[in-house]
Amino acid sequence: MAMAAFRREGRRLLLSPVSYNSSVAARSAILSDELGPMGARSVSTQAVRNRMKSVKNIQKITKAMKMVAASKLRAVQVRTENSRGFWQPFTALLGDNPSVDVKKNVIVTITSDKGLCGGINSTSVRVSKALYKLTSGPEKETKYVILGEKGKVQLVRDSKNSIEMNITELQKNPLNYTQVSVLADDILKNVEYDALRIIHNKFQSVVSFLPTVSTILSPETVEKESEAGGKLGSLDSYEIEGGDTKAEVLQNLAEFQFSCVLFNAALENACSEMGARMSAMDSSSRNAGEMLDRLTLTYNRTRQASITTELIEIISGASALTG
Amino acid sequence: MASTAAAVPFWRAAGMTYISYSNICASLVRGCLKEPYRSEAAAREKVHFAVSKWANGKPEKSSNGLCLSF
Questions:
Q1: Which of A5, A39, A208, A229 has a C-alpha 20 to 30 A away from that of A200?
Q2: Is-contact A12 A36, C-beta < 8 A?
Q3: How many Cβ contacts (< 8 angstroms) between chains A and B?
Q4: Is A108 within 8 Å of A187 (Cβ atoms)?
Q5: Which of A163, A173, A189 sits opposite B48 (nearest CB)?
C-alpha cells in the first residue's frame, strides 16, 4: 500500500540526529552502512546489536579468565610462601651482595609464557635491561638467560646478541622442585658466570608485585669477597665436617643456592602472573560493562529516533491525504 | 693436612653436580614409598621444559623438549 511505500522511503531518508558530537559521529560512521538519496545516512540498529552481543561475550570470557586465575593463584600462593624458607638460610649464611663487581654476569629473567597478564613481564624486562647497562663495561661480559616466551619476545628486539639460552613450556605441569633443579643444572652447565642475577616479580599481595633481583655468587667470587670482610669473611670461623674442603663446600652451596633461589623465584613469578592476570581481566570486564552501557544508550536512542520518524511520516502522510 | 687426592667426593669426580646428585638421591627415596604416597610423589617428579641455546643472536635448531625422569 502507499503507507508501506512511504515507510520504506522514510527509512532511507532517516538522518542521524545532528546534535551528536564527534565521538558519536565516529561510532555512527561504523554503524551506518548505506547512503540515502541525498547522501543521508541511515543508522542501522542491527549493527549496534551485533556489537553489543560481541562485547557481552567478551565480558563473559574475561570474567571466566579472572575466576580461573583466582583459583590457580590460591593453589600456587601456599607453595610460594612455603618455598621462601629455601633461600632464607642462604642469605643468613652468605649475606646478600647485589652490588658485587664481577667480570662475567649472567642475568636470568623470569617471565611468563602466556599473555594477558598486565605489565609484569614488561617490568621484568625493563629491570633486566637496566641491570645489563649497570653491569656492562670494559672487560666485562653480561649475558641473558630467559625463562618464558614473553621475555624472549621483548629482549630479542634489541639485545639478541646477548641472549645465551631461552627456556619455554615451563608451566606445562605444575612447577616442582625437580623440574627447576634440572633446569638450574642445565643453566650451570652451559654458562660461565661469576655472578648470577635472577630477576623476578616477588608476590606481596594480589595487587602488588615487586620486581626483585637475587644475586648468587660463584665460589671463586665468594673467596674474593670474603677477603673484604663482612658475612663472607666470617665463613672461615665455621668448622667443616666430613673431610670436604672449604672450596668443595662452597661449590656445593653455590649450586644448591642457585637451585633453591630459582625455585622460589619461579613460584613467586607464577603467583604474580596469576594476580596480575586477575586484575587485568577484572578491569577488562569492567571496561566491557561500561562499553555495553554506552552501546545500550546508543541503541535505544536510534530505536526511538526511528520510531519517531516513522510516526512523523505516518501522521504527515495521513494529514496529506485528509487535508 | 688431609691428602690432596681425596678432597673430591666420588660423584663430583664422576662429573655430576651437587644438584644432579641430590636429585638422584631424592628419586631413590621416592622409590621407597608405599602406594598412595608413591603416586603423589611421582607427580612431584615430572620434568618438562623446552630449551633452546642461542648463538650470535639466533636460536640453534636443536630445541628438544627435555623430558627427564631420574
A1: A229
A2: yes
A3: 92
A4: yes
A5: A173
CA distance A273 to B64: 26
Length of chain B: 70
Q: What is the ipTM, given to two decimal places?
A: 0.84
**Extents of the domains making up chain B:** 1-32
Counting as low any pLDDT under 50, the low residues of chain B are 1-6, 70
A122 pLDDT exceeds 80?
A: yes
For the stretch A232-246, pLDDT in tens is: 777 778 888 777 788
Q: How many CB atoms lie within 10 A of CB A81?
A: 13
CA–CA gap between residue A128 and residue A200 (Å, rounded): 10
**B chain contacts of residue A169, beta-carbon cutoff 8 Å:** 48-50, 65
CA–CA dist A225, A104 (Å, integer): 15
What's the pLDDT tens digit per position in A279-322? 999 999 999 999 999 999 999 999 999 999 999 999 999 999 98
From chain B, pick out residues whose CB is under 8 angstroms from the CB of A263: none
The 3-state DSSP class for residue A175 equals coil
